[in-house]
Amino acid sequence: MSQLPGTIFINYRKDDSRWNALALYNELQKYFEKDQIFKDFNTILPGDDFVFSIENALRKCDVLLVIIGPNWVSMTDESGKRRLDDADDFVRLEVATALSRNIQVIPVLIDNTTMPKAADLPENMKLLYRRQFVEIDNTRFEDDVRNLAEAIKKVLPDGSIRVQPDDHQHLKKTDDVKRTDNKITASVARPGNNLVLAILAVVCCLPLGIVAVMASNKVDVLWASGQHDEAIVASKKAKSWSIYAFITVAVIYFLYALMLASNASSY
Question: Is 158 within a domain?
């Protein structure tokens, strides 16, 4: 975990909210340093002890975000047993550990999920019901994450959140505008990763959507490494492949409708 003041742990169930957790992880990097955010498949390196890495991260984290989707409470394992009833379930262990250590635990509800009731939770997780939750809706994703970041900021040590430009000011005299040879050259704005759009494309057309997601995941990495032109290209590629996926589905439905109409007229 980061040596910076303030760290954030993202707790989620892969079969319930994998893509939502990834989208949230990427969006939070607009407000916090990447090293401040712990998420298993982005932070645990090959060969690391999974259990040790998580326990170590929980010891250092200030905020635990619990991503709760529609199947979070009812998800079962291969034997049909509810996962939350398994004492060794990682989601349960992480949440229960954070609650016992009085870490700031924030339930994050996605896909119109309602907050689980205390009766639905195992004994060592019942205090989760008393924690104030936040909701993230796909239609207002960026705004909801911005509000979540502001809420997190209030419980982290001072200086742990990036300074964001005012919504109505897209240029700063000192940062975004550079003067060279008496000419004003506007610096390139950081491109959006279009991850939410790419995820929707996966739902519409899996092959094209996967290409879009892969391109989307490269945007922030390329930008952070100083490869700004490549980051912009990856952002445009993610958007383009997402659009291709939507168009492909629309064409398929159109052709299918024509076929049905043709079959109906032949009778």
Answer: no
